[in-house]
Amino acid sequence: MTRSDTPVNPLAESDGDPAVSESLDEAAFPAPRAASARRRAAESGIRTGSAVSRVGDRVMRSLATGSGLLVSVVIGLIALFLLIQAIPALAKNSANFFTYTGSWVVSGSTLEFGIPQQFYATVLVSVIALLIAMPIALGIALFVTEYSPKRLAAPIAYIVDLLAAVPSIVYGLWGILVLGPAMVGPNRWLVDNLGFLPFFAEPENAANMSTGGTLLTAGIVLAVMILPVITAVTREVFAQTPRSHREAALALGATQWEVVRYAVMPFGFSGYISGAMLGLGRALGETMALLLIISTAGPINFNLLESGQTFATIIANNAAEFDSPLKTGAYISAGLVLFALTFIVNAAARGIIARRAARA
Question: pLDDT for 190-209, tens place per residue?
């Protein structure tokens, strides 16, 4: 056999030179060697980028931690300010702050005030607003994300979101000038036909029936005000439902409603509750709209056709008379209770969401 017919071993001819061996390997096996080179380049890039990534992670972690601490400090300072302003007035108060239901007397050196009536009115109108707004918001969110044609979904969502841009005083004027008079007839029908219920008994203040300025009207106005908040949050959460969840339900033969019931709503429940709590926070602190509709104290008898004063309205109604630290502190004490009420409501909502996530 001649030399030209003898098989050539490239590795044997490299004489142990690594450079020659690597070049020969690349010539003999180009595809694996090219893949190895790309892999080494990629690993080098990852190592180079990881240092930058670690710096970015530290920066973002510091910013997030700082932002959280800043918010906590601000909330703590607000609570401290309210306490400092309220404690002197509470110490001079001759009535029981938690049980006194009479008119507030804060003139001169005499202090006699309590929060039961304001607490009742604040919670009642907020609950009415939630009971009306939550089902409507849920229906709008489901329609926009699951049932509406794409050409209608965006305009409907846009129109609902525009409700959040309307000033509070406009809602108040609409409530007392339009909705209130329109509610006079239905209010009279409720008294005549359902007056045996404590919710629709004949009110003590007859002026409420003639103007429509009742707790029920205030609750309806608040429902319209918080509707865009709840709808926006719920809609966005429902839209984030994983496509695989929907397709899996459809593959098992589920109808559109069953997909919504077993895939979309369980996934978005926590967001729905969060949106409701945001709306409740707006309702608890609403001032101008309610000040125009209900601005006089009323009894605590669960009658929706009575008037009442919330924490926010009693402060706004008397803000022009804050001429002494004690008088100012008396009304700031109402703000302190409202602050605590909002904090408790949000904590309860967090608890509900956490339990739901634990069961899931």
Answer: 999 998 988 998 888 777 78
Please choose, from the candidates 238, 235, 232, the residue with its C-alpha nearest in 3D space to the C-alpha of residue 278: 232
Q: Would the pTM count as exceeding 0.85? A: no
233 to 32, 134, 137, 177, 238: CA distances (angstroms)? 52, 12, 10, 31, 9
Tell me how far apart the alpha carbons of residues 85 and 334 are, in angstroms, rounded to a whole number.
11
Predicted pLDDT at 204: 82
Note the maximum CA span of the chain: 126
Q: How far is CA 90 from the centre of its chain?
A: 32
Q: What is the DSSP letter of 199?
A: G
Write out the DSSP string of 86-122: HHHHHHH--S-TTT--S--B-STT--B---HHHHHHH
Cα 334–Cα 339–Cα 341 angle in degrees, nearest 5: 95
Backbone angles phi, psi at 97, to 5 degrees: -60, -30
